[in-house]
Write a structure and sequence with these properties.
Radius of gyration: 29 Å
Order of helices and strands: EEEEHHEEEHEHEHHEEEEEE
Helix content: 10-25%
Number of strands: 15
Structural class: alpha/beta
Number of helices: 6
Number of domains: 2
Shape: globular
Distance between the termini: 90 Å
Amino acid sequence: MGNLFTQGNPAGRVGQNLATGDDTALFLKKFAGEVLTVFDEKNIMKPLHTIRTISKGKSAQFPVIGTANAGYYTPGDDILNDNLAEGTRTGKAAGGGLNQMKQTEVLINIDKVLMANTFIASIDELVSHFDVRSPYTHQLGEALAIAFDKNVLKTAIKTGAKQSVKSPSNRATGNDDALLPSDAYISGQTKRGSVVYSAKPAGTTASSPANSDDLYYNSVDQAHAEPASASGTKTGNLKATPNADYIRNALFESARLLDEKDVPQSDRFAIITPAMYYTLINSGDIVTGSVINRDIGGQGSIATGTVSQIAGITLLTSNHLPSDDHTTTENKFGASQASFNDYRLNYADVAGIVFQKGGFGTLKLMDLAMESEYQIQRQGTLFVAKYSMGHGALRPESVVVWSDGQRVGQ
């Protein structure tokens, strides 16, 4: 009989399977008492905008009414004529008179039912030594929550900005993917959205372009974050390669644009990436300056790595800011183009967003719901998480979109 005790492999290892291989293969795999799931992603947009619930229907109407005019009256004049002094409105001669306030409507439609599902075989539940259903169903709900957050952010961006359409007759060169301030609902009586660009404009490329509002830089709807002392590459300094000076300038310019459009100063928020946020906090001006100095009204702490507000704007971070080209993505609930919410845009230049809570909204027909059904023919349980909602713009002037690029035409 040979020697059972060879060097490095003594006989009788009770953990080996058939006396070969790993000498711990048969030992008990102790359950740690918890199931490791994917970290819950941060969803922040639900409490930051308007939500309206309906029980029936496919859309909700939000009326838009233009602004009125006022003027001084001279005794004896007929107030039905255009003879009030000071003030003009679109469609009226100088001097006022009866107001011709225009009206329109904003519709938010219900999207298709958004769904996440999975199937768990009954035999798998029996042999598993931990609860399978709870983490699986949690992840289904999380998938819908992330989709909700991303769709609301897309809506917020489209509320304040629109896509440039390159027109060679207006300029010889230019970026047809650039972002422009969104249009007013009623020209001359309501206000446009706003865009803050990373780079300072260099001027127009045409002397009298047809769409001059878009090609000519104006400080009413547009701003730039470029510091006076900036050198080198001027684009991409908000998000692509975050620069604290650019980010801080963008916050103050956003506050100015909102103030000049009479947007309420309460409930203002900025959504930026974590990299932008910590670049801002770690800058010398934040650490040693007045932003966190409580003696002069600052808020924040270097110890906890937080700066809660700058320029009256609450700072929040999200990994859900869109950054891809979604110009071909559609979401049709009905057959017609008018019956769906349009989230299409090239988001490649989007660096962040500043907004007031009333700028955009969600229409909810069916809140998040979870269903399950045991299927005999498949010997398992089908789990379905779903909701039916839609998102749309309400007040373009309440949103400022940050662009990592330069104004269109540059």
